[in-house]
Amino acid sequence: MIAIVERGNTRTKLSVMDIKANIIESKTWNEFNVDLIHKFLSNDFENIRYCNTSRVFEVIPKNWHEVFSTSEWPIEINYSKNVGVDRLAGVTGARVVSKKKSLLVISCGTCLTFSYLNVKNSFQGGAISPGLAMRMKSMSDYTNSLPLLKPDYKKKVSQYTSSTETSMQKGAYEGMLFEIQHRISLYKRVDPDVQIFVTGGDGPAFAESLEYSIFANPNLEAMGLFAQWSYEKNR
After folding, report:
1. Rounded-to-5 percentages of helix, strand, coil across the chain
2. Helix/strand/coil for 174
3. Which is the catalytic residue, given 18, 86, 193, 202?
4. pTM for the complete prediction?
5. Series of mean pLDDT values for 10-residue runs along the chain (235 residues)
6. Is 193 a residue of the active site?
7. Can you say how many angstroms the Cα of residue 191 is from the centroid of all Cα atoms in its chain?
8. Pairwise CA distance, residues 77 & 74, whole Å
9. Domains, the chain, ranges and CATH?
């Protein structure tokens, strides 16, 4: 078995996978703590892959193998070396699901990212903008009168609101939803057959509201990191 540790800006996710890339069990924490991860795993667990997109660097155990954007990937990367490993893992995981078509992976996390992989398996990047929690926080941080609210993951049908709080919730959620829908339409204009994947911690809250046929999969990055390990191992 192999353990995949994904350290993001707000969450740490652990996925335990068998040799056929099936996820046996998973766990998510709101912090990064090596002891918690080792407590969850058995003491003799040796094959641990680590992906860090938080930009917070610290020493990791010797039996952990960190994956970088400069590691060997089963895709062509036409992008600068500072590309997020999570973006590469996302499109690589989507390629495991869809073997032949071009892919657009939309990750709804701390940031909202769009990552495009063409039919020739070449990573073409895509837009990055604030995620839902960041949109809520920025309204509070950069004004004196707006409160700090937790995101509300519900689409509001009515255009009327009854309070500052509901106005902020509506603006943040629907602003992000409309951005996602608009960008999908732009990709569809130039590539009608592109397959759309939605992932990330906030992915489920947006996937059900989209007006397009999509694949919602919260484990794309873990699948991609497994595929990267398999590719690197067999080189």
Report:
1. 30, 25, 45
2. helix
3. 86
4. 0.92
5. 91 92 91 88 80 86 91 92 93 95 96 97 96 96 94 79 92 94 96 96 90 88 95 87
6. no
7. 22
8. 9
9. 1-66 (3.30.420.300), 71-235 (3.30.420.40)
